[in-house]
Amino acid sequence: MMPASNSIEVERLTRKFKKGPLAVDGIDLTVAPGEIYGFLGPNGAGKSTTVLMLTTLLPPTSGTARVGGFDVARESAQVRTTIGAALQEAALDPFLTGREHMTLQGSLHGFARQERRSRGNELLERVGLTEAADRRVGGYSGGMKRRLDLALALVHRPSILFLDEPTTGLDIQSRTALWDEVAQLAARDGVTIFLTTQYLEEADVLADRVGIIDHGHIVAEGTPRELKAEIGRPAVEVEPRSPGDLGALEGVLARFGSRVPASDRAVAVRFENGGDLTDVVRALDDAGVKIAHLQLHEPTLDDVFITKTGRRLEGAGDEEDEEAPAEAVPA
Amino acid sequence: MNGAARIQVAAVARRSIIRTARQPAMVIPAVLFPLVLLAVNASGLDSATHIPGFPTGSYLTFALAVPFVQGALFAAMSTGTNVAQDVETGFLSRLSLTPLRRTWLLAGQLSGVLVLGLVQAVSFLSVGLIAGAGLKAGVAGALVIVALSLLIALGFGAIGATMALRTGTGEAVQGLFPLLFVTLFLSSSSLPRNLIEIGWFRTVATWNPVSYLLEGLRSLLVEGWDVHALLAGFGTAAAIAVLAVAAAASALSTRMGRA
After folding, report:
1. Order of strands across the sheet with A235-240?
2. For A302-325, what is the mean pLDDT?
3. Which of A115, A300, B201, B255 is 20 to 30 Å from B106 at the Cα level?
4. Which residues are registered as beta bridge partners of A330?
């Protein structure tokens, strides 16, 4: 047995489905011990399929992945003892209480009665569920379910944690609470965290490094600061008061830079040829284009996504099929 | 089985039992429906006891074997639905990420069906005896009836689990119910096989394993200790249980993606 480390190393990892697309297409990535790696992409991009492979729940079609020093295909049992996972849907039994879930999870990891109880109580307190611990999970809110899911993933003190869209569908308060907990896990406990998300803000706030995946390919990777710096200058988006002025608006803005996607009723360009917001307003005034709305966008991870894929991240997955499920037939 | 495995099986079994007990909509019909059918049949078909060669003068005693098998059909639905929910909600994936071996997982899951089967068997026997059914084999016979009905429940429960693991949906499990119910009707549930006059029906009932389950249970109620009927009953129930559990284990292995 190789000595375990809490890193993730992926080379040419690929997954094909018989009745679906090439869900993951030869990706390479490395996550350092104690790092929070944000895996960002729209629905159907390949995020969950990657997580399922890295957590041994789905065999790769080709390529290799080592998690905690163990090969996911050949040493899956060792991988499972190293990792904790909270998958896309909080996998909970609505008929059991929160405490019963903790006890079950502790038992399945072979904990003795006393340790089960103390570890369960400790984690329930940590995720703020002590008061609700003896209520059935069927009555929990989405945020409570997510927090319990996280607590369950931590029962056996994993050194690597996979969180698959942990805050999807949560209100902002629950989302922020979960972010705090995840950040603490990495900072205080040194847990390596692989986090998938379709929320730009989540990746921006939490991740030390971000990988952007689209159509099964990693299209960009780096720290959020590095990725945004690649984009460089801000963009300006202008909506004319009269839709008939869109053509004239386009002509004026073309002088300042190249087009970037915007809403149907607006035109946006990234500043590339010099000039600033004042110059834009002056030029539009000279051209007689009345402005309804004008907005300056500092570079965001969405801009990175647009630059790399030509589409906006939010909503990009809506036009595509949902990601192939775990039980999809392997090719 | 080592200490850790014992803790694991007990935990899954406990969860399976708690889950079943907290779903009255699943438990109550599984006990009440067979008793209602028993009451209807016992009152409506009592004249069948006048057919020459009918083994007992009480149709209630004759028909009391049927609820045990009907109850097992409900157990199949209950187990299948629970397992399908585990697949649908991802709970099975959670279990897959623990060191739990699939053999122990299956053992734990099926222990829930045994508890439901025990509640059913005791209820059916108690109500039947209170209503006046005979029990020729006495108290020891009652214990054997409970044991045989648990073996039947285990087999049918494993069939439900297999269906759930293969399809991953509760709907497919529900679709199994009419099929299993038809096999009950195409058996010796209403008349002894030698008194079924329609040739094809008698042939189907003779080939139908459910007939031997019923006849094994019925022999203890009607005739006392009929070794031949008991061997056929236990043999058939054991064969169904072994095949169904093996099928469920294979389906679970495929579903969990590991041996």
Report:
1. A257-260, A267-271, A235-240, A291-297
2. 62
3. A115
4. A17
- Cα–Cα distance between A83 and A104 in angstroms, integer? 18
Q: What's the farthest any 2 CA atoms get from each other in chain B? A: 62
ipTM: 0.81
Closest CA to B64 of B11, B157, B135, B159: B135
**CA separation for the pair A224, A239 (Å, rounded):** 29
Residues of A within an 8 Å Cβ radius of B = 55-59, 76-77, 80-81, 83-85, 87-89, 91-93, 95-96, 100, 103-105, 107-110, 136, 152, 326-327
User: A149, A181 in Cβ contact below 8 A?
Assistant: no
The beta strands (E) that lie in A43-188 are given as 62-67, 70-71, 83-86, 160-164
Instruction: Look at residue B221 and tell me whether its pLDDT is greater than 60.
Output: yes
pLDDT classification of A316: cutoffs 50, 70, 90: low
pLDDT tens per residue across span A151-164: 999 999 999 999 98
pLDDT value at A331 more than 50: no
Which amino acid makes up residue B208? N
pLDDT band at A317 (very low <50, low <70, confident <90, very high): low
Q: Which residue is it, tokens 């429960």?
A: B157
CA distance A258 to A209: 28
Question: How far is A102 from B253, CA to CA, in rounded Å?
Answer: 25
